[in-house]
Design goal:
Layout lengths: L16 E2 L6 E2 L4 E4 L2 E4 H49 L1
Length: 90
């Protein structure tokens, strides 16, 4: 029962909730709401690190694709300007 439980991180504090992931009791400072669930800080840290790991690879690909697209658009812009100048002088 949570009524007499003490915080896993702070032994002197009364626990207010149990983390549904690790099943440990925590005080108000050590537990937070994330995606509609109350999670302790260690479980939230694990969850966010796992969520970020796959995104890094695609983030690098996205930046690379953006750089190539930007260079291509810049090249097309200057090609168009050069062609307009060439036609105007002819």
């Amino acid at each position: 029962m949570i009524a007499h439980a003490r915080c896993q991180q702070h032994a002197g504090r009364e626990a207010v909730a149990r983390c549904p992931s690790c099943k440990q009791p925590f005080c108000r400072e050590c537990i937070t709401e994330h995606d509609g669930r109350m999670l302790c800080v260690p479980c939230l840290t694990k969850r966010t690190q796992l969520a970020k790991a796959p995104g890094r690879a695609w983030g690098s690909v996205g930046w690379g694709f953006g750089a190539v697209a930007g260079l291509l658009l810049t090249w097309l812009f200057f090609l168009g300007v050069g062609e307009l100048i060439w036609r105007a002088s002819a």
